[in-house]
Amino acid sequence: MNAHERVQFDLDEDEREVLRRGLTDWAGPAAPTEAMALAMGFRVVADLITDGERIAAFIRAGRSLTKADWRRALLSTEIAFASSTVGAGLDWSIVTGYQDDETIRILRAIQRKMGGSRTWPENGPSTSESPDRDSEWTKPLFPPPDSWRVPVHPQMEPTAALPMEAGENIAGMGSVTTRQQTRRIAEGLALGVLAYNVVRLPNERTALETALNSAWESWPRAGDFGNVRVPEAGRDIWTGMEKSGSRRGVIAAWEEHSVPHLLPAFADVPIADCLSRIADEQATADDWIYLGYLFLKALYQTTVTEPQG
């Protein structure tokens, strides 16, 4: 088997959720040590937290992972559930909502489906290092509020791309470089959000900028966009979303900072295919999907005003 090859297991909703909590709850009631993080296949505790959330996002989406990542997910869940020394232990049922007997039943089902996990690599390649271009991807990562899944109002339908603004194609100026980066981020973010079937967000600037900053701080690829940094990232990306459909060759854009949409020329193209078109070595399709996840998650947690239907 190729070390970078990804595999998928037929897990039901509860099985995916238990694995997700087994990865993400290390940032909550658990008390991981560096030695335990290493034993579970992560380099340090910080990687357990950040990589754990990323792996959990793929599992929640029903996507494939490398066997090394599946091993990390299963082992971290087993320890988080059972150990009161470093894991959630006695607090597991309180923080997850899954009672001990129910969790054991679910874990046993997962273990049976992942038979052979003992032979899987402990520190093999991570899923994000060689992501598949999966044109079949359609599942949402997590359920955003139903009120976000609303049709775009007729007056907010995407318009045709406009000519590039004067001076925008001038190279060598820092402000123009930042603008180019934020426009690309705005496009990738729009596709990442559309991948969840979310078609309109709350149009509340403070909440959006806060969520953008939070997502950007956690996104592994943020460092490749050197001109966009926290704490200005939220404001800069917000600016990039402004008239984002006016750039030549853009596939996706934002209307009123709250309506992600495909440009008319791509209206019938699947989101997965659009993501593949903008993917490159700097940011893959999976990277943009993950940025969309981080943004929606942060926005879902901080939004104080829901959008009008």
Q: Can you count the beta strands?
A: 4
Q: How many structural domains?
A: 2
What low-confidence regions span 5 or more consecutive residues with pLDDT below 50? Answer: 129-176, 304-309
Q: Major sheet: size, sense and barrel closure?
A: 2 strands, antiparallel
Give me the side-by-side strand order of the main sheet.
1-2
Radius of gyration: 20 Å
H and E order? EHHHEHHHHHHEEHH
Helix content: 40-55%
Outline the structure in words:
With 309 residues, the protein is mainly alpha-helical. The chain folds into two domains: 6-129, no CATH class; 146-302, no CATH class. The chain is 45% helix and 4% strand. The protein contains eleven helices and four strands. It has helices at residues 13-24, 34-39, 45-60, 67-82, 92-96, 100-113, 174-194, 205-218, 233-241, 271-278, 285-302; strands at residues 6-7, 65-66, 252-255, 259-262. The strands form two sheets. The protein has a two-stranded antiparallel ribbon. A two-stranded antiparallel sheet has the order 3-4. A hairpin with a 3-residue loop joins strand 3 and strand 4. The chain is elongated and about 55 Å long.
Describe the structure using short key phrases.
single chain; 309 residues; mainly alpha; two-stranded antiparallel sheet; 11 helices; 4 strands; elongated; disordered C terminus
Summarize the structure.
Helix content is 45%, strand content 4%. It is mainly alpha-helical and 309 residues long.
